[in-house]
């Protein structure tokens, strides 16, 4: 179903546009109303035997009232049945279920947020929209209990400390989440360093939220391998993090200066997927390139850590369409975050969205993508070839498994250039 966004102050109003599906539903509803009214007219006006009715009116008034009550009850049942059938038809036409706001366990704030608001002057002549509709992920219907828990709070009071609940909803596909009318928990950001000193200054444990996490400090996190892109990644001083992108440890490790040279000075803004603690964005910032880092707080406060370094974290799952206009980024950097799992079509959708936001001539940097097997490497290669990218760098190499097993693992690194399509 199409939608139009209208910026109003610092919020966004979303409008629902009439579509083929909505038109079909409207026609069905109209037919149902007409049929019900005809049935009601027939029930109240039909008189097979005037003498018999006259006899009932004079000799059996209680039976007459009972007869009318039965007719009214029958009409109500017919209307209720029609509404249920229409609701089911709408679900089938739309392809998904909407949130049933009549359920008793729905939070009042959620009902208010999802309420449709008719335009005061009727249908808009320019856009064709008829009502304002709140933006919320349709998959939220499958997590209604959690969503109601998330939307239960004191209005104008402090929000519950439930960011982990919000992330759980996002990971279940309930995205975007509804807005709330409460004040998010704030943590004093004492001791933040000015930019660019902040890029490599150690971050204090006291300026991030540790609720819902197993570790309660960065020393604990540095002992864990959180992902293939984040092992000791919060250690900005003594670990290997400070050497990334400026010192190669294998032939798969490309240096930032070498990649930027392939862009002939045209790399200004970039997008990094699954960027760990933000080191790629930090190195790019040193080259006067602005990079947005897409991340979630999986087992660690990635978003707060990246922001404390003076960088831009984007709290968004990879199942969500990227909130950027077409052809805006000069560079897209992806590591193991490209391994989304599931059916091949899921990776297809992600790659097409990445291609959408990257400008013609822009660079797609695939950085140490782990190929679990030869078939996975071939599948990714076939997918990349589908886009017609020019291969500027392409390296397949082996590394020893970092877990200590001694096994060799195959990694693919590449720098590709998006063509200008007609």
UniProtKB/TrEMBL annotation:
GO cellular component: endomembrane system; membrane
Topological type in the membrane: Single-pass membrane protein; Single-pass type II membrane protein
Keyword Electron transport carried by entry: no
GO MF, one annotated term: methyltransferase activity
InterPro entries with a match to the protein in the record: Prob_Methyltransferase, Put_SAM_MeTrfase, SAM-dependent_MTases_sf
Presence of the UniProt keyword Ribonucleoprotein in the record: no
Keywords in alphabetical order: Coiled coil, Glycoprotein, Membrane, Methyltransferase, Signal-anchor, Transferase, Transmembrane, Transmembrane helix
Gene3D superfamilies for this protein: Vaccinia Virus protein VP39 (3.40.50.150)
Coiled coil: 72-99
Transmembrane segments: 24-44
An example Gene Ontology biological process: methylation
Subcellular location, principal: membrane
Cellular localization per UniProt: Endomembrane system; Membrane
Entries under Pfam families matching the protein: Methyltransf_29 (PF03141)
Family membership noted in the UniProt record: Belongs to the methyltransferase superfamily.
Protein name (database record): S-adenosyl-L-methionine-dependent methyltransferases superfamily protein
